[in-house]
């Protein structure tokens, strides 16, 4: 059986790998560039705001069951946690936290009541909570799970 680089749950086997550091560094800079100053990140909408990709709705977070906004950022959160655990660097984690803070300010009790159509963001919010200690992420994950 082949040994995959992600088999170590603490990512110790990746911490000193130069190619991981170089490639991830370039990717995270691109994501930071795509992140809007208030934390929104969904390039299907932001690359050409006048002509968003069909199926994502006329405005942010209105077609949650099909638009993949929460699903995509859920994968971002998981990647950010794994990158932080592997390298100790907050580059991608800071992008994820800024976006998660925005999502937590939009969704929840007495806020927007749209719910993700794909299970991803809930798991990722729990992982983000475990790394940051921000209980807003845990509460939001619970809200999504209990109300979807």
Summarize the structure.
Helix 4 (69-87) runs antiparallel to helix 5 (91-106). The chain is mainly alpha-helical. The chain has helices at 18-34, 43-46, 64-67, 69-87, 91-106, 121-132, 135-147.
Q: Strand share of the residues? A: under 5%
- Apparent shape: globular
Q: Taking Cα atoms only, what radius of gyration do you get, to the nearest Å? A: 16 Å
SSE string, helices as H and strands as E: HHHHHHH
Output mean pLDDT.
76
Descriptive account of the structure:
The protein is mostly helical and 148 residues long. The protein has one domain. The protein is 57% helix and 0% strand. It has seven helices and no strands. It has helices at residues 18-34, 43-46, 64-67, 69-87, 91-106, 121-132, 135-147. The longest helix has 19 residues, at 69-87. Residues 1-8 have low confidence and may be disordered.
List keywords for this structure.
57% helix, mainly alpha, 148 residues
Task: Detail the topology: elements first, then pairings.
Elements: H1 18-34, H2 43-46, H3 64-67, H4 69-87, H5 91-106, H6 121-132, H7 135-147
Helix pairs in contact: 4-5, 4-6, 6-7
């Amino acid at each position: 059986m082949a040994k995959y680089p992600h088999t170590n749950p603490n990512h110790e086997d990746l911490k000193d790998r130069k190619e991981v550091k170089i490639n991830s560094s370039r990717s995270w800079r691109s994501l930071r560039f795509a992140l809007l100053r208030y934390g929104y990140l969904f390039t299907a909408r932001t690359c050409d705001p006048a002509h968003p990709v069909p199926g994502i709705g006329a405005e942010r977070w209105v077609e949650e069951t099909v638009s993949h906004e929460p699903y995509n950022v859920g994968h971002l959160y998981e990647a950010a946690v794994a990158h932080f655990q592997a390298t100790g660097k907050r580059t991608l984690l800071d992008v994820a936290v800024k976006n998660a803070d925005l999502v937590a300010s939009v969704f929840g009790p007495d806020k927007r009541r749209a719910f993700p159509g794909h299970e991803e963001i809930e798991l990722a919010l729990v992982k983000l909570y475990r790394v940051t200690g921000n209980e807003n992420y845990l509460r939001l994950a619970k809200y999504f799970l209990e109300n979807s």
